[in-house]
Design a protein that fits this description.
Blueprint: E1 5-14, H1 18-25, E2 31-33, E3 38-39, E4 42-43, E5 47-52, E6 56-57, H2 62-72, H3 76-83, E7 88-98, H4 109-117, E8 120-128, H5 129-132
Parallel strand pairs: 7-8
Antiparallel strand pairs: 1-5, 1-6, 1-7, 2-5, 3-4
Length: 141
Amino acid sequence: MTRTRIRASFELTGAFDPADVTAATGLEPTRTRRAGEPLGRTRVAADLWALDSDEEEGWDLTPHVERVLGRVDPHRERLRAFMDGREVRAYVFAIGVLVDTTPSLALTPALLRAIADLDATLEVDLHPTSDFLGGPRRVTP
């Protein structure tokens, strides 16, 4: 079995109160942060409201993105209304921490439409384990 860890998330960042997103949509986030909060040795740069898939071992990121967007889609209009006129950016993240296999992400027309309908940016983050955990990166010829 693979040890590569994968997950996806839908995130709103900008200048807003994350509780206002929850109130406007009825969706409970899995993570929130406020600008200025301590984060390690630095501070959070922007407010955050995030809805994550469960992290698991695997290689196929597509079902993770589909699950997150499936939870968000019924609330799309309320999310868009919340975003209008505010300094808010939407992202869909597909994240893999690589150990023994490289994750895959299939971008079907339906998936691309769902991302576009949220006016979201898709970001695919693939991290070699040592980079993600802050260790030295192994380079193979």
